[in-house]
Task: structure prediction
Amino acid sequence: MSVFPKNFLWGGACAANQFEGAWDVDGKGASVPDMCTNGSHTESKWITNHIHEDRFYPSHEAIDFYHHYEEDVALFAEMGFKVFRTSINWTRIFPTGMEDVPNEKGLAFYDRVFDCCRKYGIEPLVTISHYELPYALVEKYNGWASRELIDLYFHYATTLFERYKGKVKYWITFNEINSSIMDMGAILSVGTVQGYEGPVMAFKAPEAVRLQALHHQLVASAKTVKYAHEHYPNFIMASMNIFAPFYPLTPDPEDMLAAQERTNMFCWLCGDVQVKGAYPYFAKHYFKRHNIDIKMEAGDEALLKEGTVDLYTFSYYMSNCITTHKDESSVMGNLTGGFKNPYLKASDWGWQVDPKGLRWSLHSIYDRYGIPMMVVENGLGARDERGADGRIHDPYRIDYLRDHIREMGKAIEEGVDLIGYTPWGCIDLVSASTGEMAKRYGMIFVNKFDDGTGDLSRERKDSFYWYQKVIRTNGEDLA
Result:
């Protein structure tokens, strides 16, 4: 008998800005990703403040889910998806983010997508804002650094609630909301890049600006959740964080303390606010020690207390090590980075593979918050090559997913309330960090390449059939 609950939500996850394409179709405005060029593992993508005709912008077409959604959702259904995590492009609904009246063609597109999901019995799990801030809000307000975005986001979110109240039950307010704690989050998450043009990896926004922007997002999330609870009691409202365990590299007590501080600020700060309803003590001490003055208005703290979420969701790709010893080797990660763990192997992009770290994370999160959880991103970015038979054989992806699913099963056996799993990039899409197609996550191959070529045809990889079996057996058969 499977250890996974009978109604476990198996599925997959994508993001509008990374797979929809149709960036200027049917009234859509420009978002931050639309202003980002392609990059690679070794060369940073750029953000530009206007569109350069001689540069390639991968989100403009991406994999063109906008015109292939019926085919793609049918493939998800063939795999057996119970849930599909996707997001809505803010600029498809409000092209600049500042309009009073929404774009009907944009709303109608998501009606069609959700209806298609429902036709196959797939539950939509919708991220309201997934790294796709309207670029007009960067130009006018420097993104989330300005408090005006709270009400603009609230108007956007409540427009979605009213339109899709009969089609969507599960909502995530912000994708990886804690990403703005790291430098790259200034562009991806909070958009504090007013006037900047250059390599994404070279941009450094002041920490105080990023944390103020984060506060505005936390207030916007709480205001939106409170409204949803009051007006749509059937909605299940969720937070979403990057969760990346930070292990001390050595038993040196200095390493232990450094790992604890990084874990607190990166892994726990946002969760504590969104689940417990208040800034934790360690964050207040950190702000004081670093001379960071978070500007709050009357009512902010009450809103945070009243707008707590029902469900904790998170991305998990890897763990990191922290050390105060400067002669150690550093490694890449999901916006985090750290030091090399000698006990772990790494992906082609240097991300350390740590399935047991997922089990540790599940226990740590459930012990702290005690509410249901979903792993809504997890997967392996890898280079996929055709075999001699012309097919895509990806045993490395199957191994990665199998090992993480096995650890999830152990956590469930041990009492953790995990209700769903949506591996990232169930279909190939544009990488958020590098802007490339070569870093493929999907179980469905898309014929699209980093130079923009490809006929966009879809093809099942070996992992497609493997995951189909996993879902069919409710996680019992992982062979």
Summary: The first helix runs from residue 16 to 19. The CA atoms of residues 380 and 441 lie 6 Å apart.
